[in-house]
Each structure stands twice: as structure tokens, then as C-alpha cells.
Amino acid sequence: YPALYFGQVNAAVKKNSQLMHDSDMKATVYVTSDRFYPSLDNEKVYIDISSVNYAFETKDYIMLVLKSTRVMLIFHKEGFTTGSLEEFVSYLRERKIKIKGRKK
Known about the structure:
The chain is of the alpha+beta class. It is built from two helices and seven strands, in the order αββββββαβ.
């Protein structure tokens, strides 16, 4: 199964690279105790943490796969401006979200 996950990640990253002409697309996501907000300007648009099916980790990214849509939220490990990667992993574990591919 890990090859499937890494294949999905590689395909997503490659597609992003093609669409963005090899430049990174960056977005700020605000995380609260139970939601992810793409903007603080519009609190009506959010993703509830309960809609996350699982997460998986690669060398550079942590991806959250949503239950109903199979959409992935991709977080670059070096991209946290508030908090840290380990705090984010702790946040996910506290909410019982399994992280595949993570070394213990």
C-alpha cells in the first residue's frame, strides 16, 4: 500500500508543478480545534476535521485525505508559520487521525 500512497503524492506534486510552471503554489490555512479555514475573511468556508479520513507522510509533505471527496490537503513540512510540524502531528493524533508512512 505505501507505493500507492507515494504514487498518488508524486502524481499530485507533478501535476501541481506542471500547472504552476515549476513554481510552488502557496496558501495559508488556519487551523482551529475542529476546522481548517482557507481564509480568516470568510468563516463560512471551512473543512471540518471530522471529514478527514486519514493522513500520510512523505519526505517533504503531510497530506490529509478527505472522506467523501477524496480531496487532499497538502501541507509542506517546512511551511508552518505558527507552530511546528510536530505540533501539527500531535493535533492530528489527538483527533484520532491515522498517519500512514510516519516513522515512529
